[in-house]
Amino acid sequence: MLDDAGLQALREAARLSPDNLPLRRHLAEQLLAKGYLADAEAEFRAALVLAPKDADITAGLAEAFVRQSAYGAALSALEPFLASPGYPPRLGIIAARALLGEGETGKAAYRYYEAISRDPSVADPELAERLTVATTGLSSPPPPPAAAPPDSSEEEVERSKLTFADVAGMEAVKEALRVKLLLPIQQPELFAAYGKRAGGGVLLYGPPGSGKTHLARAAAGELGAAFVNVGLADILDMYVGSSERNLRATFDLARRNRPCVLFFDEVDALAARRSDMRQAHTRQLVNQFLAELDGVDQHANEGVLVLAATNAPWYIDVAFRRPGRFDQMVFVPPPDAAARAAILRILCRDKPLAEMDFDAVARATEHLVGADLKGVVDRAVEVKLQQSISAGRPIPMSTADLLAAAKGAKPTAVREWLATARNYVLHANESGAWDELMPWIKAKR
Q1: Where are the alpha helices (DSSP H) in 34-137?
Q2: CA–CA separation, 301 vs 291, rounded Å?
Q3: What is the pLDDT of residues 27-66, one digit of tens each?
Q4: Which of 5, 257, 283, 342 is 20 to 30 A from 49 via CA?
Q5: Is 302 in the same domain as 323?
């Protein structure tokens, strides 16, 4: 109930003249300005029904979402505009706030500085300060090159807000990470008594989309450690010697911010078998990687927790599996029915819901991994948003909505990965490296 007489009068006027777009827009903006966020959201939605492609109304709706911490909804609303060049800079500022709320520091900084480079008047000093605090070693982060995409910015130290509570299922995997990576830092005296130091490496492997990156972020958040997410573009360079320097700089960054979780995604591209390489400089990159894992002395990597993820562990040079390197390999399986239900609960927890039967949806989504399930939820949300915009109010999502979205979902790559893994487990496992996979492969026959 509004306790502002002026807003009550505006709302009554809008009720009597529901197709008056300027009136509805003015009411929504006033509600937003005075902090009536849910009411503002509803009015912006109603205005969008009258003008679906209006950038200012979309900006208002996204702002209402951000101030309610519904960052994903804000980015979904902004996405059609952000995909087009020359979008209004104000939308970039709102997107930066939402991305920062999602923990995507690099992308948030890119959006912010790209926006103010086109229109300095939209600058937000408070947001700029938050971005400065969230990045490392930059008192005033420079704007990225106009042609560079958000992901090409240099490695940044993040502070993950995720913990293991945000990871559905996978208890055995989480326990392995606790023992190998987290407990040596959380209980250093106990581990020191047995000559164990904080640091080391774990290789996460499994089918695409099974949650390896999500697990790495959660491990950093569980520890309260810095998190450095390293992609191929951060390391690989066309000039001889540059890739090795980039790799050394990445480890140095992690060492300066210890305790730190250093995460290498698609590590098979950086740590491939040297016997398969034809060029000397690519073999040298592998040698550099091994040297950095070993450290210049026994304490060099203390407090640096190296996590790596791959879909193809069989292509990684065997030297990486020696003690002190990636000496522990952890299989991240596709989620079973109970884990799928838990993933769906987490994905839907910030959305308006009717009574839900997540177990029924889980049974209908066999072979889907976490990334696939997120796609199912996103499709259901898109349909519900269209219905809500037409109705002028949020309509709760139901079990039937998720089941309808799941009908068109297809597993990304689990079956193909399973076929490849079965070949290695059954025909190329003389060393016993894939014994952990054996029970799972047999169960899937």
Answers
A1: 37-50, 55-67, 71-82, 89-101, 105-118, 125-134
A2: 11
A3: 888 888 888 888 888 888 888 888 888 999 999 999 999 9
A4: 5
A5: yes
